[in-house]
Amino acid sequence: KEILEKYHDLFTLQWEGVIGNMCVPSQAEWERLLTNCSAFLFYGMERFMSHVLLNWLVAMNIPKCRLVILLDLVRSLQSYQRIKNSDIHKSCLCVALEKPTETAMLLSLTGVGSVIATQWYTTLQENAERLEILFENLLSFGKTAGQTVHILQK
Q: Which Gene Ontology biological process is one annotated for this entry (predicted)?
């Protein structure tokens, strides 16, 4: 919340979304957020694709969304139990399509211009540091997504 508040005025007055763990967005809410944005940020537990339905995502057309930032792949005991219970009901192919590279490809096929995503499991603190670097470079300094990713790699 602190990071979003810090950069709120630099970008737009139209920040919109779901913050916190008080409610889980419905598939309709995910669709509304993705189709009505120019940039989408997911900062959460486990795999982003474990939160949305694969069949629903591949049927979407979201060319207005120029950038998706996925700061996911954070694991806690509770999130691991949730994902383990969820994965039991999925085919091996569906679980494989939830990996970072496959997720980026699926989002690209729906029309997203660029995807920035973590590739391996991390901590909430490390993702908070990444988010600070992303916002500072994208919003304060006006760097491109490619330039910002290069900075993150260092």
A: axoneme assembly
Q: Please, what is the end-to-end C-alpha distance for the chain in angstroms?
A: 25
Cβ–Cβ < 8 Å for 41, 94: no
Residue 52: phi and psi, rounded to 5, are -120, 155
**Strand (E) or helix (H) holding 11:** helix 2-11
- The count of C-alpha atoms lying within 13 angstroms of the C-alpha of 99, restricted to the half-sphere facing its C-beta, is 6
Within 8 A by CB and 6+ apart from 7, the residues are 135, 136, 139, 140
Map out the domains of the chain as residue ranges.
1-149
Retrieve residue 6's tokens: 């810090």
Q: What is the pLDDT of residues 95-118, one digit of tens each?
A: 999 999 999 999 999 999 999 999
